[in-house]
Please model this.
Amino acid sequence: MEAGTFRREQVVNKVLYIEGTKDDTNGNLREGFRILLEQKLKGNMPRLVMGNGKEETMSYFENERLNAKYTHRHVIVDSDAAESDKNREGREKKSPALFLMVQEMEAWFLSQPQILDECFGIAVSKKIPAGEVVSINDPSDKLQQWTKDCKMPYHKVHHGVALLKKLKLSELENKFPDVKRLVSVLSN
Model:
C-alpha cells in the first residue's frame, strides 16, 4: 500500500441470529452455517451470531440496543412443529425477519439423505419414511435412533457442523420456503 492510503473494511450492516449453541467444543455450528450460506451469499454475508437455544437467540434478535449498529437483522430458529402453508404465510407477513428451520435443522439433513449415508457409512436413507421430511416430528431424535448402532451415533453439534457443510443450498431452497426466503432477503 502507498503511504497515506488505507484499506476500508467492509461494513457489515446485516446480522443473522441462529438458534444452536455458542459452545464449539464438539464443533463450530457458526462455521457450518457460514459455509452453507456462502454458497449463495459470498461477498454479501451477514454477521452470524449463534444463540444458546431459542430463548437466548430470540432475546438477541429483539434487543434494540444490541442491534443498533445493524440496518437489517434476522433470526432463524427451530419451529419444533410442522407448519401449514397458511400459517407460514401469516407468520411471514407478521414477522418478515423471522425464519424457521422446519422442524429442526435435522430436517434439512433428512431432505438430502445421501449426505447421511456418506457420513454414517450406513443406509440411513432407507430408514427415512416416505413423504415430506418437514412432517417428521423430532428429526434430531430420529437421527439419533437411526444411527444408534454406528461407532458414533448422531450428535447434534459434531455431526451437525459436518452435515451443514455438505448440504446443497439450492436444494434446500427448493424444499424449504423459509430457506428460499432467507437467501433472497439476505441477498439484497
